[in-house]
Design brief:
The structure is a single chain. This protein is an alpha/beta fold and 389 residues long. It has ten helices and twelve strands. Helix 8 crosses helix 10. The radius of gyration is 21 Å and the shape is globular. GO terms for molecular function: pyridoxal phosphate binding; transaminase activity.
Length: 389
């Protein structure tokens, strides 16, 4: 990428054309290494089915107050009642608070691993066993991550994964059942072919812009304008990923065969290595101007992005996107069932955490340019405005 070009740094990895025909590799990490896995269009579908499968309908599920909201919606739609526990200012689950909130009505514990960083899964496993209830491990943001040598999603009774946040695939979520007990899970039907094709083309076009600079950007814009008109004229149903809410109409949708093909062709170890390298590059260049949420990267962690604490998130988002960096605004809102006044640390997290892409598509050169842009944006955020003087 030339420094004179406008940057294009997408929030998620893009699809390289060669990946469409690459041979499969043995999957050494879950869910690909798991013998008892079912694949879905969305991870939220796996959440819904988990509630039904474990017969948690009518019971209470103890969930973190720091949540996206769509997983809570899936729990509610499946017939369970969410209750919430405290998460601290560093994404640290308050296990003592979890223990205090368990009642005879609690039917399951729900743990989210945030952005690849492990939560206290062993302590939560111990609590669940003491009370004779299952532990649900939500790894939607932590595909390919491990807690030391233990892959995330293998300690709980159920592990839930999202594929398209980490891998360049058009859709995909997974449910893994751990332990000796087996469940008869139906194989969900494939999603509409046109929807999968639309997402695949979009990922290929993003890759074209990422590698082609101004020329790639122009070609992507041209193809997108033609494609949008074609989709509209043909009334193609496009089941969007990245949506904010659970939709019962899509609960039975499975993962497309193309997604599985692309996913199984990925070099998972290289992806983890690239993400860790990019995280360390950002950490070294940015920690003196903005406190990182994590000042180190524990062994086994495959970071989804680089989270940092900022003062004016909306201003910084606008500045970075203006420069072509698709920074991420992580989980702005509480689900209505959760009282924000009860969890001030979580409310603070929602106001102040901004995430910078560090995925495997981004070279060290690009990460250096990203760090420069972020540093300048952070410095301008702290300068007093001329109008104020």
């Amino acid at each position: 990428m030339k420094t004179t070009d406008k940057m294009f740094v997408p929030s998620l990895p893009t699809l390289w054309p060669g990946m469409l025909m690459a041979p499969p590799r043995p999957g050494a990490l879950p869910p690909f290494s798991s013998p008892n896995a079912r694949y879905f269009y969305f991870a939220r579908n796996a959440v819904w089915l988990t509630i039904k499968m474990l017969r948690l309908d009518g019971g209470e599920v103890l969930m973190p107050a720091y949540h996206h909201g769509v997983e809570v919606e899936a729990v509610v739609d499946a017939g369970a009642i969410p209750r919430f526990y405290r998460v601290g200012s560093r994404w640290d689950v308050d296990v003592a608070d979890v223990a205090k909130r368990i009642t005879p009505k609690t039917r399951a514990l729900y743990l989210i691993h945030y952005a690849g960083f492990p939560g206290p899964v062993d302590a939560m496993r111990k609590l669940a066993d003491e009370h004779g209830i299952p532990l649900i491990e939500d790894c939607a943001l932590s595909l390919l991550s491990s807690d030391g040598a233990t892959p995330l999603g293998t300690t709980g009774d159920v592990g839930i994964f999202c594929l398209y946040k980490t891998l360049p695939v058009p859709n995909g979520g997974a449910l893994v059942v751990n332990g000796k007990r087996s469940y008869s899970l139906p194989e969900p039907p494939s999603p509409p072919l046109a929807s999968t094709f639309s997402h695949t083309v979009s990922a290929l076009l993003q890759n074209m812009e990422l590698r082609g600079g101004a020329v790639g950007r122009g070609l992507r814009g041209l193809v997108r304008s033609v494609g949008h008109g074609t989709v509209k004229a043909a009334s193609i149903e496009r089941v969007a990923t990245g949506t904010q809410h659970f939709d019962r109409r899509h609960v039975d949708l499975g993962m497309s065969p193309l997604t599985k093909r692309i996913a199984l062709a990925q070099d998972l170890e290289s992806i983890v290595e690239a993400r860790r390298r990019n995280y360390f590059l950002l950490l070294g260049r940015l920690r003196d101007v903005s406190p990182p949420l994590f000042n180190q990267l524990p062994p086994g962690v495959s970071p989804l992005f680089y989270p940092m604490v900022v003062q004016d998130k909306e201003l910084l988002l606008a500045k970075l996107r203006e420069k072509g960096i698709d920074a991420i605004d992580f989980w702005k809102r509480f689900h209505p069932a959760c009282d924000p006044s009860e969890f001030p640390e979580v409310a603070q997290l929602r106001r102040t955490i901004l995430e910078i892409p560090c995925h495997q598509d981004l070279s060290p050169e690009v990460m250096g340019q990203v760090a420069d842009v972020v540093r300048e944006a952070l410095k301008s955020e702290r300068r007093p405005s001329k109008r104020a003087s």
